[in-house]
Design goal:
Blueprint lengths: L7 H8 L3 H8 L10 H13 L6 H8 L4 E6 L6 H16 L3 E6 L4 H13 L4 E4 L9 H7 L5 E4 L7 E5 L1 H14 L5 E4 L5 H12 L5 E3 L2 H5 L7 E4 L2 H13 L9 E5 L13 E4 L3 H15 L8 E3 L2 E3 L19
Parallel strand pairs: 1-2, 1-3, 3-4, 4-5, 5-11, 6-7, 6-8, 8-9, 9-10
Antiparallel strand pairs: 10-12
Helix pairs in contact: 1-2, 1-3, 5-12, 8-9
């Protein structure tokens, strides 16, 4: 073989097999077409010897597939929530010989559209996206794109587009009802109120004729902590901040304040007492989203959404005050 870049034909000749057999092996179809193990071993030996790299552009033209999948989320992937979702996606697409093009929009609808259009220019076969859901969103674009390639959303449901997500409302409800069931009537909410979990919290408060406190961050809540017996934090990150700040002020969990978080992040296992939190499915969402895309690429059209129900992990951060006299009069 000369020093020029080897071709598939060269590999087939050196391995002593037909061009078709070499092509089947490289495209992962050896088992499907029952190529002998000895044949596969000869092809692999020659590939390694000559460091053969397939021409993916040529393969894409021939198969009308690039084996590329676009994945985009709206924030940095440096937390266990996103890392586990991405891990689930990777687990499925790797088995299908697909590769991932990844980006984050940083909650910018403009950057989101720019990144997805870049992915489209690269020829992605499908897209998994956690879209920014601000008023200025790209939902209509994703509906149109879904007619061209399979699109699956995670964390946000777009009508007319397949999705894999946690039932955020259900998660917020079980956390709120748990605090009520433990006798708490002076309950605060800390964090982002523009999510379904917050909507569920307010519904539970209204149903129980309670007037909750609402605070944008932990610092503002701590200034009014004496008015409350319990707090529902938007995420475990607020729980972490609350634990640290409370300890510095001599405030004890759950003796002075009961706490429930959301997400069941890995780091909460290091906190004491163990925080109660709502456990969302993470890797399972990634797996489900990737499976929907793969099914669409294989020709299936009627694929239901994958909706996961969060589960409450009670932990040790909520005090039962039902039997404590006047506990609901704290701060008055």
């Amino acid at each position: 073989m000369t020093k020029r870049k080897p071709t598939l034909k060269d590999i087939a000749e050196k391995a002593g097999v037909s061009l078709t057999a070499a092509s089947m092996y490289l495209n992962g179809k050896a088992k499907k077409y029952k190529l002998a193990d000895a044949t596969c071993e000869r092809i692999e030996k020659v590939i390694r010897k000559y460091n053969f790299i397939p021409n993916y552009h040529a393969r894409a033209i021939a198969s009308k597939r690039t084996m590329l999948l676009g994945v985009q989320i709206y924030e940095n992937p440096d937390v266990s929530f996103w890392l586990k979702i991405i891990s689930g996606i990777e687990e499925i697409i790797e088995a299908e010989k697909y590769h991932m093009i990844f980006s984050t929009s940083h909650s910018s609808a403009e950057k989101e559209l720019e990144s997805v259009q870049f992915m489209m220019a690269k020829g992605i076969d499908g897209l998994i996206i956690a879209p920014t859901d601000k008023k200025n969103n790209n939902f209509d674009y994703f509906r149109r794109l879904n007619k061209t390639i399979p699109v699956v959303t995670i964390n946000t449901k777009i009508e007319g587009v397949s999705a894999a997500y946690n039932d955020n409302y259900s998660g917020g409800r079980i956390a709120s009802e748990y605090l009520v069931s433990q006798g708490h009537r002076r309950i605060a909410f800390v964090g982002n109120v523009n999510f379904k979990r917050a909507e569920a919290f307010f519904d539970v408060m209204r149903e129980n004729k309670m007037k909750p406190g609402v605070f944008p961050n932990v610092s503002s809540f701590l200034q009014a902590i004496g008015r409350f017996t319990a707090v529902f934090c938007f995420s475990d990150y607020q729980v972490l901040e609350l634990y640290n700040e409370a300890a510095s002020k001599g405030i004890k969990v759950p003796d002075d304040i009961s706490v429930v978080g959301y997400d069941n992040m890995d780091f909460i296992r290091l906190l004491s007492p163990l925080p109660g939190t709502v456990d969302q499915c993470k890797k399972e969402v990634g797996i489900a989203a990737a499976e929907i895309v793969m099914s669409r690429l294989k020709g299936k059209t009627m694929i239901p959404d994958s909706i996961f129900k969060p589960v409450l992990r009670e932990g040790e951060s909520v005090k039962n005050i039902i039997s404590i006299p006047n506990s609901d009069e704290k701060g008055e």
